[in-house]
């Protein structure tokens, strides 16, 4: 076989392999004109039978995708769609805050997107988050360890379909509950990179915003934070420290009656505070209401949910039909356990 024929066969293989990796999205409902970046969406099957299908959004770096870092973004909760990371946190688009009138909410470009210097995979995980689904009924119970293994499998399969990114510096990134997943994922990648016969992932590090590490311990630090922000008095703070011995909210070890009474007083001082931004009005009572106002902290997430549940959006994103109805239901502070 001559070299020309070998080259053509190799080129055909690469092109066909890449064609199976996902679908290019050039237009999105709510955004005027063609997208000013390259967006690919797709599914990667897990396991030999591929019963679990993990959905992803991949945005190519707007700078130098051949050399720029490749990032994996995991959303928190767990169970929130990575669409929140894309539209609300680090992506090149966001939802325009305007009163919802029943039509497709508008999208506008951002100036702060991480895609200006990195390519990013936004992954919907675990199964049941966003557009990720499973053909198994009922779903298997999962654990953080199981999810770490699935994400690692996803990365290997995704990179096998996108071999041009194998040499790019790789970073695992995310927020909130991703703090429980990403360190274990990094350890898994590091160990698996030494195993024979699989292309290594060019791991360089990880980035986690507002990470969960030990919920019981972190929850207790709300008292110290509230005092530092002048939300409670010095007298209440000193009394709490003296009577509760650093355990304000956890039932184990048991708390004294004096401690319980002081914690009740603390809650009265802080219950009406916005858990995500103390400088903004609290509108937790609007989370499950159709009467949510545009000045509410959660209004963008309200619009995101309606955008993502629009049929034309599903079609544009190449979502497989007859799997799941809703893509995303926003979870308020008490629902996601973050406050």
> What is the class of the largest domain in the CATH system?
Alpha Beta
Series of secondary-structure elements, N-terminal to C-terminal? HEEEEHEEEEHEHEHHHHHH
Q: Quick one: how many beta strands?
A: 10
Q: In percent, how much strand structure appears in the residues?
A: 5-15%
Helix segment count?
10
What distance lies between the first and last C-alpha atoms, to the nearest angstrom? Answer: 65 Å
- CATH topology descriptor of the largest domain: Rossmann fold
- The overall number of domains is 2
Classified in CATH, the superfamily of the largest domain is: Alpha/Beta hydrolase fold, catalytic domain
CATH architecture of the largest domain, by name, is 3-Layer(aba) Sandwich
Low-pLDDT runs of 5+ residues are: 4-20, 323-327, 331-339
Radius of gyration: 23 Å
Q: Roughly what percent helix?
A: 25-40%
Q: What is the overall pLDDT average?
A: 87
Structural class: alpha/beta
Label the overall shape. globular
How would you sum up the major sheet?
Answer: 8 strands, mixed
Family: Belongs to the peptidase S10 family.
Protein name: Serine carboxypeptidase-like 9
Organism: Camelina sativa (False flax)
InterPro entries: AB_hydrolase_fold, Peptidase_S10
Give a brief description.
InterPro entries: AB_hydrolase_fold, Peptidase_S10. The chain is of the alpha/beta class and 339 residues long. The chain has helices spanning 3-19, 83-90, 144-161, 178-192, 215-228, 234-244, 257-270, 299-308, 311-316, 333-336; strands spanning 23-25, 39-46, 52-59, 70-74, 93-95, 107-109, 119-123, 133-134, 170-175, 203-209.
């Amino acid at each position: 076989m001559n070299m020309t024929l070998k080259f053509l066969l190799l080129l055909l293989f690469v092109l066909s392999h890449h064609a199976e990796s996902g679908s290019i999205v050039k237009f999105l409902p709510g955004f005027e004109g063609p997208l000013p970046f390259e967006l690919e969406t797709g599914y990667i099957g897990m396991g030999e039978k591929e019963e679990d299908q993990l959905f992803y959004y991949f945005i190519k770096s707007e700078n130098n995708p051949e050399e720029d870092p490749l990032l994996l973004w995991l959303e928190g909760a767990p169970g929130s769609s990575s669409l929140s990371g894309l539209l609300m946190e680090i992506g090149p688009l966001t939802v325009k805050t305007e009163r919802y009138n029943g039509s497709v909410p508008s999208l506008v470009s951002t100036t702060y997107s991480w895609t200006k210097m990195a390519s990013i995979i936004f992954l919907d995980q675990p199964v049941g988050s966003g557009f990720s689904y499973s053909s198994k009924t009922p779903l298997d119970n999962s654990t953080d360890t199981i999810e770490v293994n699935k994400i690692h499998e996803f990365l290997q399969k995704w990179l096998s379909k996108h071999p041009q990114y194998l040499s790019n510096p790789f970073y695992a990134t995310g927020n909130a509950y991703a703090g429980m997943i990403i360190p274990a994922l990094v350890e898994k990648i590091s160990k698996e990179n030494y195993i024979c016969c699989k292309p290594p992932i060019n791991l360089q590090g990880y980035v986690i915003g507002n990470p969960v590490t030990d919920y019981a311990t972190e929850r207790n630090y709300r008292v110290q934070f509230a005092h530092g922000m002048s939300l409670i008095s010095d007298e209440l703070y000193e009394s709490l420290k003296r009577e509760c011995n650093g355990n304000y909210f956890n039932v184990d070890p048991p708390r004294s009656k004096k401690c319980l009474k002081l914690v009740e007083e603390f809650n009265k001082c802080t219950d009406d505070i916005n858990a995500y931004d103390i400088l903004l009005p609290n509108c937790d009572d609007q989370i499950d209401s159709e009467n949510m106002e545009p000045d509410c902290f959660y209004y963008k997430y309200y619009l995101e949910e309606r955008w993502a549940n629009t049929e034309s959006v599903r079609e544009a994103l190449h979502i497989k039909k007859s799997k799941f109805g809703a893509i995303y239901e926003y979870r308020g502070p008490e629902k996601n356990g973050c406050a």
